[in-house]
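Support request from a user on the community tier.

User writes: "When I paste my structure tokens into the form, the page sometimes reloads and wipes my input. The last time it worked, I copied everything first. Here is what I submitted, just in case something in the input itself triggers the reload:"
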């Protein structure tokens, strides 16, 4: 449950993300995806800096409260907010417990819709979780196979409009 104080923090975060958005960055960012992606148009490094800065205001919250805030960010479907959710959940990695897998599984199943959010969540939050609790997760292959069906090569090539690199003569 999100309390008023947490709602205010999310409002401040979103306001800063919007203030740092740029129409040109938004337009160029869309080229990296074959699917339609909602984004503010904030450069990734700037979004990470903002994420880190705002985490300082919530770092004393419980893991559950931070995960609830992350869930609200995931629900927005806005790319930069998903990056913040991934960062915040990763910043509290020392608190991960086996039961947290259900939360991460929910995020993957309900909110991960593009390769960038997938990479950010899986390379940091879920990857670290698996390093810590691999014996707990015998079903992870089935979950990842079902959830991560992104065509990375197609997205990569589309963003550069270069076609299939395998067709090039060496």
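"...and here is what came back when it finally went through:"
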């Amino acid at each position: 449950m999100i309390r008023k104080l947490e709602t205010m923090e999310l409002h401040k975060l979103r306001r800063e993300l919007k203030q740092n958005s740029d129409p040109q960055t938004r337009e160029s960012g869309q080229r990296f995806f074959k699917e339609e992606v909602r984004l503010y148009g904030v450069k990734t490094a700037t979004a990470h800096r903002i994420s880190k800065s705002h985490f300082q205001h919530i770092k004393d919250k419980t893991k559950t409260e931070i995960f609830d805030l992350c869930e609200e960010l995931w629900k927005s479907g806005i790319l930069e907010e998903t990056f913040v959710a991934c960062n915040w959940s990763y910043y509290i990695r020392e608190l991960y417990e086996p039961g947290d897998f259900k939360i991460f599984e929910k995020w993957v199943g309900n909110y991960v819709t593009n390769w960038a959010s997938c990479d950010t969540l899986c390379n940091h939050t879920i990857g670290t979780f698996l390093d810590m609790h691999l014996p707990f997760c015998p079903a992870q292959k089935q979950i990842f196979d079902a959830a991560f069906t992104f065509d990375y090569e197609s997205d990569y090539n589309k963003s550069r409009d270069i076609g299939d690199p395998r067709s090039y003569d060496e």
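Agent notes: The reload is a front-end session timeout and is unrelated to the input. The chain has one domain: 4-161. The radius of gyration is 17 Å. Escalated to web team.
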